[in-house]
């Protein structure tokens, strides 16, 4: 990747200056007199951990949230941004992390909705969408329905929606978290081009290498305050990470890669049609997870992860019982409880609503999956046992909560995640299936969760992790694969895989599965892996 | 069956289906914006009683219809105040509205039961109304039936090609996204509820001023409820609502015909026919989940708070 061509020029005219922005939520000071300025044509990074106040700050710029104190100076004038419509009029566009698109409408209709009455001529608008998307290298078919688009394509719709207007400041909230590495490169080319044309860009992220590659300047937030400002190209990643997390937290760890023992989970030819019209069908999934290893599945959201997890957890019953095997026999026909009795523990993607019941106390939530460990006797709940089980989870996984009677919904996302992971791990499962184990969790807690998973692995459990965070998968997985459109890539030991290869897998290019399109190079790869497979048998 | 009977059945089918069509179209617009108003029955009854009293006092049918619409809108805005303004549970509020409307209309109308008025006249369109079989059905109806044809066309077009229709759909699918791109979520919902109220009032007025020109307590006899079911089973599609409403009309007439022909079946069982037939046919049509999901307002019934 090339380094930014425009250096950080302090004399660059300012597009937006924020002074002393303060926003208080009940029980939480989200922004504490934050100062930030963005120049014309500058790509400015806003760095920070989850909960550092990044989202609040950009919602203030976009007029969704009103600050308690402080002022905004837009192109030299002090203003109050009333609502998102007002922000759009000023030329502020925003690409949300969770997209604000309408699935049942077409690309053109989605964009027309944001434009106001001038967008009445749909044909002219479709033409404009085509030309804008071609100009910035983002292929897009205006007639497609949004629900049929991939996540990367949806992001393009959001960006193009900003670009068809007179855009002066583009805010992107964690835009790369849903993209393959290749898609990230394409996005950066587009953003650089936009900045060269004078558009200011506020790039919100916690991925330091991306910030280094793209941004002219960076402002770092920690616990609602500006904890540092820097020029990313002149810093190294660890000094920026220090600004993000403070001094106490360990930042990076390395874990040994190991080889598993006997196969615990065996999936053979798993085909499952999705009931949801917007869902993904699983196509001939083959997967082995050995006891004492961690297998990671990478992939862009919405490529069949939910369906695969439902099939493994027992939420969806599999017609072909033999498709999923535990050592005790086929389990495809068993409900979640029966599978749990055979050694499964499961951490679902959604914390509130599936991982935990929001309106129930932590103690009751602990009982929900912990009842198999003898917390129910003769049909009666063992309250004392449950209480001490919950307390053990809270203590061992450092869950920040007043006591075990607190409702699940009043915990922060990261804390609840620690509790749910803890609840499953404490039951000493033989197989743990976990989705996004550290999603929305700060670096310190993520390290703790990773360590707990590694410990469980070393005790001999088989672990399957589904995650969108490739760095995490490289860190903790012993073997790695990717899912795309309901099909699984080949699985390889992590040290033998490159980031580029995983990126190709995430985009659906599994060399072995496409004999017709093989390049000579891919042929060699598949020959090698065939040879390797022969050797192991 | 002779041709006169068929002609009359078809004519009556349209007349019987019309109030249902009007109220269901109104509710569909309301639901498309994401608001579930279960108060249709109450709003219809208030429309019916207000229209009847206004006409009885002034002798002016058009004033009566106007008052029916006003009553429907007022009732709907009472609902909107509670369910949208105060973010109360929409289902509970809607049920309360129906109970309130049923009781209030009975109370207000108690002195007017059994009073006769001159109902709405049929306007036969020259030449067209003389076409055999379908002439009478389509071109010898009263003004409100013609109006319902127009309303159907307008609403069909509204959701198919208008920008405002697109906004209503967007607000019903994802109000947070709609707010984020600067669409007026709350205003859209208030207006959609008001439109639903106006249509329910009009439908009620049609019952007491044209269909059976008199006032009787609870005279809507569950049409508000069947309209609610109709909207769901029609998968929020305008053309299917039209079909469902007339199907209900047809079945209602056929059960009277069947009684007239002296079938040895309890008339009470026959009276169930329209409800069962309508629901059955529409359930079969809405089997295809994928199709209906494209039209269903995903955020139906969920309150929306801006700024969260």
TrEMBL record, chain A:
SUPFAM superfamilies, per database record: P-loop containing nucleoside triphosphate hydrolases
Pfam family, one: ABC_tran
Main location: membrane
Keywords, sorted A to Z: ATP-binding, Cell membrane, Membrane, Nucleotide-binding, Repeat, Sugar transport, Translocase, Transport
ABC transporter domain boundaries: 16-248, 265-510
Bilayer topology term: Peripheral membrane protein
Gene3D superfamilies documented for this protein: P-loop containing nucleotide triphosphate hydrolases
Matching PROSITE patterns: ABC_TRANSPORTER_1 (PS00211), ABC_TRANSPORTER_2 (PS50893)
Localization: Cell membrane
GO molecular function terms attached to this record: ATP binding; ATP hydrolysis activity
Listed name of the protein: Simple sugar transport system ATP-binding protein
Organism: Neptunomonas qingdaonensis
Automatic annotation (TrEMBL), chain B:
TM segment ranges: 6-26, 63-84, 91-113, 133-159, 190-209, 215-234, 241-258, 264-285
Keyword entries, A-Z: Cell membrane, Membrane, Sugar transport, Transmembrane, Transmembrane helix, Transport
Membrane topology: Multi-pass membrane protein
Top-level taxonomic group: Bacteria
Molecular function GO labels: transmembrane transporter activity
Compartments (UniProt record): Cell inner membrane
Gene Ontology cellular-component annotations: plasma membrane
Pfam families: BPD_transp_2
PANTHER family (UniProt xref): ABC TRANSPORTER PERMEASE PROTEIN (PTHR43370:SF2), SUGAR ABC TRANSPORTER INTEGRAL MEMBRANE PROTEIN-RELATED (PTHR43370)
Protein name: Simple sugar transport system permease protein
């Amino acid at each position: 990747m090339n380094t930014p061509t425009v250096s950080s020029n302090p004399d660059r005219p300012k597009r937006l200056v924020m002074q002393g922005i303060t926003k208080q939520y009940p029980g939480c000071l989200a922004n504490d007199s934050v100062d930030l300025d963005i120049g014309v044509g500058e790509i400015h990074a806003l760095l920070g951990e989850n909960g550092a106040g990044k989202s609040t700050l950009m919602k203030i710029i976009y007029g969704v949230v009103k600050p308690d104190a402080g002022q905004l100076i837009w192109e030299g004038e002090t203003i109050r941004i009333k609502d998102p419509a007002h922000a759009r009029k000023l030329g502020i566009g925003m690409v949300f992390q969770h997209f604000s698109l309408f699935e049942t409408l077409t690309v053109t209709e989605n964009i027309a909705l944001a434009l106001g009455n001038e967008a009445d001529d749909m044909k002219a608008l479709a033409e404009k969408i085509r030309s804008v998307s071609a100009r910035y290298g983002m292929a897009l078919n205006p007639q497609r329905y949004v629900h049929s688009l991939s996540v990367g394509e949806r992001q393009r719709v959001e960006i193009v929606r900003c670009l068809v207007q007179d855009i002066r400041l583009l805010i992107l909230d964690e835009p790369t978290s849903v993209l393959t590495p290749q898609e990230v490169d394409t996005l950066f080319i587009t953003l650089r081009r936009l900045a060269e044309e004078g558009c200011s860009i506020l790039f919100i992220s916690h991925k330091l290498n991306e910030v280094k590659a793209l941004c002219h300047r960076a402002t770092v937030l920690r616990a609602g305050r500006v904890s540092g400002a820097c020029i990313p190209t002149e810093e190294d990643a660890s000094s920026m990470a220090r600004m993000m997390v403070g001094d106490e937290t360990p930042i990076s760890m390395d874990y040994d890669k190991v080889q598993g023992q006997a196969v615990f989970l065996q999936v053979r030819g798993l085909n499952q049609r999705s009931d949801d019209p917007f869902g993904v069908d699983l196509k001939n999934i083959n997967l082995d997870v050995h006891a004492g290893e961690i297998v990671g599945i990478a992939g862009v959201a919405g490529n069949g992860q939910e369906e695969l997890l439902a099939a493994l957890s027992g939420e969806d019953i599999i017609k072909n019982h033999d498709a999923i095997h535990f050592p005790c026999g086929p389990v495809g026909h068993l409900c979640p409880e029966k599978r749990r009795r055979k050694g499964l523990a499961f951490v679902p993607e959604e914390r509130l609503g599936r991982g935990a019941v929001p309106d129930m106390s932590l103690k009751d939530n602990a009982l929900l999956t912990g009842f198999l460990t003898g917390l129910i006797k003769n049909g009666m709940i063992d309250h004392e046992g449950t209480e001490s089980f919950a307390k053990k989870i809270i203590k061992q996984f450092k869950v920040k909560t007043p006591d075990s009677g607190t409702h699940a919904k009043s915990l922060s996302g990261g804390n609840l995640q620690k509790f749910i992971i803890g609840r499953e791990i404490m039951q000493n499962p033989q197989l743990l299936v976990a989705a996004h184990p550290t999603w929305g969790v700060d670096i310190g807690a993520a390290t703790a969760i990773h360590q707990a998973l590694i410990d469980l692995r070393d005790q001999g459990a088989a672990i399957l992790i589904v995650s969108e965070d490739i760095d995490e998968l490289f860190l903790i997985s012993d073997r790695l694969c990717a899912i795309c459109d309901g099909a699984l890539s080949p699985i390889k030991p992590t040290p033998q895989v490159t980031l580029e290869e995983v990126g190709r897998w995430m985009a659906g290019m599994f060399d072995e599965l496409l004999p017709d399109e093989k390049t000579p190079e891919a042929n060699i790869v598949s020959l090698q892996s065939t040879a390797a497979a022969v050797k192991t048998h | 069956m002779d041709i006169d009977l068929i002609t009359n059945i078809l004519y009556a089918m349209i007349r019987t289906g019309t109030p249902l069509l009007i109220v269901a179209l109104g509710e569909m617009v309301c639901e498309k914006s994401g608001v579930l108003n279960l108060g249709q029955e109450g709003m219809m009854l208030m429309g019916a009683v207000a229209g009847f009293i206004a006409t009885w006092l002034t002798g002016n049918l058009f004033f009566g219809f106007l008052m029916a619409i006003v009553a429907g809108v007022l009732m709907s805005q009472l609902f909107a105040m509670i369910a949208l303004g105060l973010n109360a549970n929409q289902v509970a509020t809607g049920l309360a509205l129906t109970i309130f409307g049923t009781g209030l209309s009975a109370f207000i109308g108690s002195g007017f039961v059994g009073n006769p008025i001159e109902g709405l006249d049929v306007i036969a369109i020259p030449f067209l109304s003389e076409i055999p079989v379908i002439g009478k059905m389509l071109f010898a109806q009263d003004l409100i039936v013609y109006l319902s044809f127009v309303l159907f066309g307008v609403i069909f077009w509204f959701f198919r090609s208008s920008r405002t229709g697109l906004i209503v759909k967007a607000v019903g699918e994802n109000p947070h996204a709609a707010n984020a791109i600067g669409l007026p979520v709350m205003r859209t919902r208030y207006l959609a509820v008001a439109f639903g109220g106006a249509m329910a009032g009009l439908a009620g007025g049609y019952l007491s001023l044209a269909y059976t020109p008199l006032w009787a307590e609870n005279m809507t006899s569950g049409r508000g409820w069947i309209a609610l079911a109709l909207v769901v089973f029609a998968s929020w599609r305008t053309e299917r609502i039209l079909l469902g409403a007339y199907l209900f009309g047809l079945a209602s007439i056929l059960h009277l015909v069947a009684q007239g022909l002296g079938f040895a079946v309890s008339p009470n069982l026959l009276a169930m026919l329209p409800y069962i037939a309508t629901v059955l046919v529409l359930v079969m049509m809405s089997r295809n989940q994928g199709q209906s999901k494209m039209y269903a307002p995903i955020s139906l019934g969920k309150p929306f708070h801006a700024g969260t």
